[in-house]
Amino acid sequence: MESKILIGELARRAGVTPRTIRHYQELGLLGNVEQENNGYHYYSDESLKRLNKIDVLKNLGLSLEEIQSVIDLYFEEPSMIKGKQKVLEILSKHLEETDKKMEALDQFRQEILSNMARIQLMVDELSN
After folding, report:
1. Which CATH number fits domain 7-93: 1.10.1660.10, 3.40.50.300, 3.30.1490.20, 2.40.10.330?
2. What does the record list as coiled-coil region(s) (predicted)?
3. pLDDT tens digits, residue range 74-84?
4. Are strands 41-42 and 34-35 parallel, antiparallel or unpaired?
5. For 31, phi and psi rounded to 5 degrees?
6. Taking the model in full, what pTM does it have?
7. Which residue in 36, 41, 35, 38 sits closest to 10, CA to CA?
8. Farthest-apart Cα atoms in the chain, separation
9. Residue 38 — pLDDT band, cuts 50, 70, 90?
10. Could you write out the three-class secondary structure of 24-68?
11. Which residues are CB-neighbours of 62 under 8 A, at least 6 positions away?
């Protein structure tokens, strides 16, 4: 049987704040959360696993929106292959975007160098 964990204990175990847990819960990242008649939300061991997976995915550079699209896939089957495939897809897009940004920055850098050289030439001509 899964243990029932209150938000404070879950936050301590996961190394996050209760506010973070509430936010993730609002986004649907924690899956099903049990609420009893007393108003308390009870979390399971899976909630802790999900929080740990969210942390890993954030460290890979995924946004919370991207994590929303992939988190449930990790808990559908034991090998987690669907989740991993989706993360590879997302990271490939990140890489493509990064390459485009780097190309644009390199072009901008070349323009700066060209402008600097042109202005330096004018300064040198006026100095003589």
Report:
1. 1.10.1660.10
2. none
3. 999 889 999 99
4. antiparallel
5. 70, -150
6. 0.81
7. 41
8. 87
9. confident
10. HHHHCCCCCCEECCCCCEEECHHHHHHHHHHHHHHHCCCCHHHHH
11. 70, 87, 90
pLDDT tens-place string over residues 89-106: 999 999 999 999 999 999
Tell which phi-psi region holds residue 15, choosing left (phi > 0), alpha (psi between -120 and 50) or beta: left
5 three-class SS:
strand
In the chain, the amino acid numbered 7 is I
Residue positions counted in the chain:
128
